[in-house]
Amino acid sequence: MSWRIEHADTLTVLAELPSRWAHTCIALPPRGTSRERALAVLTQVHRVLREDGTLWLLHTNPELCDELRGAGWVEQPPPGWARPLAGLRSLTRLTKDTPLADPCSLVRRPQCASWRRPSWPTPRAADRAGVLGGLTGQCVLASTTRIACGSCGAPYHQGAAGKPLVSCAHHNPTGRCLVLDPFYHPANGTLDAARGHGRSFLGITDSQAGERE
Ligand SMILES: [Zn+2]
Predict the structure, then answer these.
(1) CA proximity to 56, closest of 209, 190, 204, 146
(2) DSSP label at 79?
(3) Residues with Cβ within 5 Å of ion ligand 1?
(4) Where are the alpha helices (DSSP H) in the chain?
(5) pLDDT for 22-62, tens place per residue?
(6) How close is the Cα of 50 to the center of ligand 1, in Å?
(7) CA distance 57 to 167
């Protein structure tokens, strides 16, 4: 597992990353980020994300989602555990427009069966950082696996009888899933969530991006 924080212009860093590389992206555009800027960043994320990757967007601007559909993103049903966060920010789950199996289809069923709904504190009872950290942790668990193929990055899902299910033929279980945060801020909880679950992490922080909440 490795992690890195890049302190540089987000679009410049993203442009240098390989295509179809990251497994999941958790994006919290800071308040003050223009729609144009967020769209430009998330269009680059679309390229950097694997075909089976997931974008978790925590945002306060519903119009952004409409524009993302035009940029090749497909909005997926929100997970049930996202609901208590409604008053804070909306969580939208997006995938690429590649036809994807249903999240609970054959390959993913064992993973879905093991999802545990956390005993959520209500936002009123919990501090914002704690709620956000729990949410980003759920995003990481729902869209990545502990082991990935060291050759092609394909995630190893847990199959029946504990046998890994993988979609490639490399037999190289030395890789780790990569979590990308293009609007990195320590309060997002994304780095802690990725490290806590043994995933690799790349955060990009651009101090010009806007004002923090
Ligand atoms: Zn492979």
Answers:
(1) 190
(2) P
(3) 149, 151-152, 154, 168, 170
(4) 10-16, 35-48, 62-70, 109-113, 128-143, 190-196
(5) 999 999 999 889 999 999 999 999 999 999 999 999 887 77
(6) 13
(7) 26
Quote the tokens at residue 151.
Answer: 């050759």
- Per DSSP, the three-state class of 164 is strand
Cα of 167 vs centre of ligand 1, distance in Å, is 7
Instruction: Return the CA Rg of the chain.
Output: 16
- Say how many residues make up the chain: 213
- Beta carbons of 184 and 164 less than 8 angstroms apart: no
Q: Which residue has the tokens 């209500």?
A: 122
Q: What is the value of pTM for the model shown?
A: 0.82
Separation between Cα atoms, residue 69 and residue 65, nearest integer Å: 6
Do residues 157 and 164 touch, judged by C-beta distance below 8 A? yes
